[in-house]
Write a structure and sequence with these properties.
The chain is mainly α. It folds into 2 domains: 90 residues, Helix-hairpin-Helix base-excision DNA repair enzymes (C-terminal) (Endonuclease Iii, domain 2), CATH 1.10.1670; 109 residues, Hypothetical protein, domain 2 (Endonuclease III, domain 1). The chain is built from 12 helices and no strands. Helix 1 crosses helix 12 and helix 2 packs across helix 3. It binds a DNA duplex through helix 2, helix 3, helix 6, helix 9 and helix 10.
DNA sequence: GCCCAGGTGGGTA
DNA sequence: TACCCACATGGG
């Protein structure tokens, strides 16, 4: 069976089981970016609390985050864990966004390779965060790889090199049509399935909707 | 108390 | 390049 067919089947099974996920859970692109940084190695429920604190303090915008002392920002995002490093990361991002006059629209005007390169140059933005921003904030077609994607694809026998981001991303990017809505839904479904079924501590369950797609 | 969660950057061999 | 490790809260 060809890889592209397998990937289509995985998507179909997940979509049939869970339906549309309506991602990213945020009101606007800037909030997507802040959330993407805060959720690094952290449960989303802890990030939601931090975002709520930022909203309550009325600082969920580039200017306010830039003006806010790093320590104060760290306290507001405390619930998201790693709050000192994450405060520095948010600071680094908004400092950089100043180069675009705080306009996400201008920042997103670049093509995907250029945008990705620029995002990766910012402190605290690695491959997954950069790709999440490109897909879910800029709405451009790139496939996001996260821990769930690695684990699920590994258990299906479709992960070429566990932990190798670029290699796994290539599996999706070279076998699927580059469609932003499709990539959005696909990754969101991986997260949904990873959280609910394909957990780290649990063996790949035989009742799972993907189990008979294993290679 | 223990394990885990939608990673990244820095240091060392 | 390929491993280590620090970073930290909150839920099960």
């Amino acid at each position: 069976m060809s890889t592209d067919h397998s990937l289509q089947q995985i998507y179909q099974r997940l979509f049939e089981r869970y339906g549309p996920q309506y991602w990213w859970p945020a009101d606007e692109p800037f909030e997507v970016i802040v959330g993407a940084i805060l959720t690094q190695s952290t449960a989303w429920t802890n990030v939601e609390k931090a975002i709520l604190e930022l909203k309550k303090a009325n600082v969920l915008n580039p200017v306010s985050l830039r003006d806010l002392p790093t320590d104060s920002l760290a306290q507001l995002i405390r619930s998201s864990g790693y709050y000192n490093v994450k405060a520095r990361k948010l600071k680094a991002f908004v400092e950089w966004l100043g180069n675009y006059n705080d306009s996400l629209e201008r920042m997103f005007a670049s093509d995907i390779p250029q945008l990705r390169k620029e995002l990766l140059s910012i402190y605290g933005i690695g491959q997954e965060t950069a790709d999440s921003i490109i897909l879910y904030a800029a709405r451009k077609p790139i496939f996001v790889i996260d821990a769930y994607t690695h684990r699920i694809m590994d258990r299906l026998g479709l992960n070429p090199d566990y932990g190798n981001y670029a290699a796994l991303q290539t599996v999706f990017m070279s076998n699927l049509t580059h469609d932003e809505r499709f990539f959005n839904e696909y990754h969101a479904l991986f997260v949904r399935h990873g959280k609910e079924v394909c957990q780290k501590s649990s063996p790949f369950c035989d009742g799972c909707c993907l189990s008979n797609l294993r290679i």
